[in-house]
Amino acid sequence: MKLRRNNSEQREKRSRPASVDAVIDSLVSYVKGQLLRPLSGAGRWLVFGLAGGILVGGGVALGLLGVLRLLQSEFSGIAAEDSRLSWL
Questions:
Q1: pLDDT above 90 for 36
Q2: H/E element, 70
Q3: Quick one: average pLDDT of 31-41?
């Protein structure tokens, strides 16, 4: 995709030597090839990472809830009448 240049950029281009234009063009193509194209594919990996993080977080929360329920059912000493840990 070739970028359109406005009139002031065209005037600057006319006043610059051809070697400077070649350097600028090669720099633009290098940036597109080495930075923009790889970053466009990174979006998919970010979505997978976010989905994986949400699933792992949900699994950890459910695991902790299961451990809490196990402690409540196995240790009957945690009751409202005889403990300060009734909120567990």
A1: no
A2: helix 37-74
A3: 80
pLDDT band at 82 (very low <50, low <70, confident <90, very high): low
Cα–Cα dist 63/56, whole Å: 10
Residues counted in the chain = 88
Residue in the structure block whose two tokens are 């945690």: 78
Q: Which whole-number Å values give the CA distances from 19 to 24, 26, 59, in the listed order?
A: 9, 10, 59
Domains of the chain by residue range: 7-74
Burial of 78: CB neighbours in 10 Å, binned 0-12, 13-18, 19+: middle
N-to-C CA span, the chain: 62
Whole-structure pTM over 0.70, yes or no?
no
Tokens of 87: 């909120």
